[in-house]
Amino acid sequence: MTTDQLDVTDAGDVTDAGDESRTVLGRIATIMDAFDMGDQVLTLRDLTQRAGLPKSTVHRLVEQLRAIGWVERDHNNGYRVGMRLFELGGLALQRNQLRDSAFPHLHALATRTGLAVQLGVLDRGEVVYLERIVLGSFALPTRLGGRMPAYCTGLGKAMLAFDDAAAEMVMESRLVKRTDHTITEPAALRANLDDIRHCGVARDLKEAYDGLVCVAAPIRNSGRAIGAVSVTGPASQMDWEATSEAVKHAAVSIWNARFPVSRAS
Length: 265
Hints:
By secondary structure, this protein is of the alpha+beta class. The chain has helices at 24-33, 44-51, 55-67, 83-113, 154-160, 164-172, 186-199, 240-258; strands at 71-73, 79-81, 116-123, 126-133, 147-149, 202-205, 212-219, 227-234. It folds into 2 domains: 11-81, Orthogonal Bundle (Arc Repressor Mutant, subunit A); 92-264, 2-Layer Sandwich (Beta-Lactamase). It has 8 helices and 8 strands. Helix 1 (24-33) crosses helix 2 and helix 4 packs antiparallel against helix 8.
């Protein structure tokens, strides 16, 4: 979304920033909240009454929301929640369901390895961390809800290996060295992703952070990965073979927990 699509400036909105109902975003939230009453289609008059805002303000904002797909016009010129919001809500629901399905397996993996365990998804060439369980005395520099470039993380590479479009997008961008070990040459990264597809696990050899290594496995059955799980810790504490098997087992367990019907297929 850009300011060309949704104008967040309004000469009449110079108000106390703490008064959320009077800010532009607060007014948008009030308009969207009007649909919470169970009505699928609301007229401009309905929205104006429920939002308690001037008709001209509601009309201007709702037309901008329609332009970006958050609301849609009904054939009777009423308004309803747009498909874009359903898409965003579905995405959030899927990620929450993945986290909930994964959590007991993440905890078991952390207990088994004694190291930090993380769950992530791929979003526009970056890893988004959905969950993290930190064991051991070392500090993990990532944070819940944080992002990292996919090309230099075990989680990211585990997912890029099974998503050709995302991998190409990443390799067409500028790959910045985060450490002396970061892979920044597209040919070398392609070869690394080929190895990951062959062995089923990705390794981060101090590529994202000095002193930390990682083993990750994609959460998938066939096709693209819906996420990835990893074990991270100091290089001196990493048992590569045992951890690789444990991470692959956890990834399969998470997939089966998320899609239990697939176990019978």
